[in-house]
Amino acid sequence: MSPTTVIAADRLIVGAKESRLIGPGHVRIAGGVVTEVAEGRPVDPADVTLSGGILSPGLVDLQVNGYYGHDLADADEAAWRTIVGRLPETGVTAFLPTFITAPVETLAAALRRTARLVPELPQGARVLGVHLEGPFLSERRHGAHKREWLTDPTPEALAVLLETGLVRLVTLAPERPGGLDAVRALADAGVLVSVGHSDATADQVAQAVAAGARKVTHLFNAQTGVDHRAPGVAAQALTDPALSPGLIVDLHHVSPVVCRLAFAAAGDRIVLVTDAAAAAGMPPGRYELGGEPIELPESGPPLRVDGTLAGSALRLDEAVGNAAGLGIDLMTVVDAATRTPADLIGRPDLGRIAPGAAADLVWLGDDLRARATWVAGQAVFRERT
Fold this sequence. Notes:
Residues 54-379 form the Amidohydrolase-related domain. Its EC number is 3.5.1.25. Belongs to the metallo-dependent hydrolases superfamily. NagA family. InterPro entries: Amidohydro-rel, GlcNAc_6-P_deAcase, Metal-dep_hydrolase_composite, Metal_Hydrolase. This protein has 385 residues and is α/β, with parallel strands linked by helices. The protein has helices at 77-86, 104-117, 155-162, 179-188, 202-211, 233-239, 256-266, 316-325, 330-337, 339-344; strands at residues 4-9, 12-14, 20-22, 25-30, 33-39, 48-50, 54-57, 59-64, 66-67, 70-71, 92-100, 126-127, 130-133, 167-172, 192-195, 215-216, 244-247, 271-272, 285-289, 292-296, 361-364, 370-375, 378-382. It folds into two domains: 4-56 and 352-382, Urease, subunit C, domain 1, CATH 2.30.40; 59-344, Metal-dependent hydrolases (TIM Barrel, Alpha-Beta Barrel). 24% of the residues lie in helices and 26% in strands. The strands form six sheets. Strands 8, 11, 12, 13, 14, 15, 16, 17 and 18 form a nine-stranded parallel β-sheet that branches. A four-stranded mixed β-sheet has the order 5-4-1-6, with no helix packed on it. The protein has a four-stranded antiparallel β-sheet with strand order 7-21-22-23, with no helix packed on it. Helix 2 (104-117) runs parallel beside helix 3 (155-162).
């Protein structure tokens, strides 16, 4: 690749602080960052010319349990290489691998193993840290998590899990004994705290927000809801401007009309996530999540043996297309998969096309599926035609 690369597109989603759609336009890249964004065609011939579709910031997924047959919690180096190398096929340029509930020492060992692996990975989707979804969850809302491994967030448990410095996001139930103290400790350590798998009331969630929580994990799933006399996690998530609700728009975890409700109430705060499990990107069959078997049926998300939803097989570009197909404004939808998660995780260099931002880009076709992807200005995926 030449020192400077110019990509011209019919339509681009650009902006440092606010997204807007322009077109035609072009992006100039040098040293892995965007150096110029301009309307119209470049004076000199472009290195890459994209016809149709939209050039978007690279997608950012804060909840990926696994993909392509591998569960990230116990994946070896070859599996990690497969996942970071192939996630750009789905438009994802940065992600948080998610480790679900296990004994604290098992999670700590997984974190230490991951800390050794990540620096050796080839270029592909950026690993932004690790999301721990558990083990500090509610027994009443455990979902696909093993109830017997759930525990309270003691200072000792937190210290063991934070020792690698790799943890960037923790999902917990703040109503557990020690929950609010844990929120404060995690927030003070620079870790994003998300309320999830929780039986909390809206008031308890508000207390967690006051302690430093800023996110809600997979809105409406494994949490108290929007009862008009007993509001819970979902109600607080939709109405509290300090909270960014994660939403799985596979149209199975949350019905289309309720997805519209979520965007109507909290559109500029919604974070699209996949909650992808090892079954994602794979044919129907048996896979694993958190060391337990899950089954991917011919249609719909993966399931535990008892029929409990167990992650998803969703692509993030598919989630963008699903949300846009529900009539949600395209800028709002793209922000929910780019700028909003990037800002939430403390990476304002990601999730936007603007001078100084990382040159992480995805060309979405007219159907909003990824056609080509760049990370730090390097082409890491191009659809074969």
